[in-house]
Amino acid sequence: METITINVDYEVAKAYREAAPNQQQKIQRLVNDLLKQMIQEKTLDQIIQQMQTEAKNNGLTQETLDDILHNG
């Protein structure tokens, strides 16, 4: 893996920094997978559907993401 820098909203950055290490790893995998999908020129709907499936399979539900964003 390599490190890159991506600008995000303050709330997203704060929530990520305050998340537990295992949650950060899950988020990293999701972002990595999302970027891979985007460079394959799939439609946004296809990307979202696949990411939702992968997130669910990895235990990262919408509720978990919402909790991270709102409660850190």
The proportion of residues in beta strands is under 5%
Give the rounded overall mean pLDDT.
85
- Largest sheet report: none
Beta strands, count = 0
Radius of gyration: 12 Å
Roughly how much helix do the residues carry, as a percent range?
Answer: over 70%
Q: N-to-C terminal Cα separation, in Å?
A: 25 Å
Low-confidence stretches: none
Q: Give the CA-based shape.
A: globular
| Structural class by SSE content | mainly alpha
Number of helices: 4
Write the layout of secondary structure elements.
Layout: H1 10-18, H2 21-39, H3 44-57, H4 62-71
Describe this structure in words.
The protein is an all-alpha fold and 72 residues long. Helix content is 72%, strand content 0%. α1 packs across α4 (62-71) and α2 runs antiparallel to α3. The mean pLDDT is 85.
